[in-house]
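REQUEST ID: PR-0412
SUBMITTED BY: lab tech R.K.
PRIORITY: routine
TASK: structure prediction, single protein chain
INPUT:
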Amino acid sequence: MAEWEIKKTLGRCYGTGRELAVGEEYFAALVQTEAEFERRDFSADYWEAQKPEVYCFWKSHVPNPQQKKKLFIDDAMLLAFFDRLSTEVEPEKVNFRFVLTLILMRKRKLKYDSSRNEDGREVWTLRVTGEDRNEDVVNPHLSEDQIQQLSEQMGQILQTNLES
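STATUS: complete
OUTPUT:
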């Protein structure tokens, strides 16, 4: 399994290099590089003017370092990221989506319905809570250590604690 080293926000706009001010709105994005996802932050002005090509994104504000951090990621954003990964076949992305599935199940946004074997793989069917749709997810049979490692990597990417 590939390891991703995801940098935390540097407090600078990736496009201009300008330091982002405390309280300033910016866009955090995942960008697909040759071998991994990379987090990049963009000022709102740069984002609107350049419309950088990204895999997925979310809005945030530069926190005040004097205030306690709020660790919150919108469930709708997590579900959108889950949906975006639905067509991926690369093992790292399948693993990533599976761990995201477990997180969304814990948050009661996905509910396990059934499983089946398809082409030698175990495929789970899950119901999306509050929506009239089901999603299929490949179970890559990750070890507990692999699940923990991927959860930590997701937390670094999204700058949050995904345990809640």
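NOTES: The chain has two domains: 1-70, 75-158.
REVIEWED BY: pending
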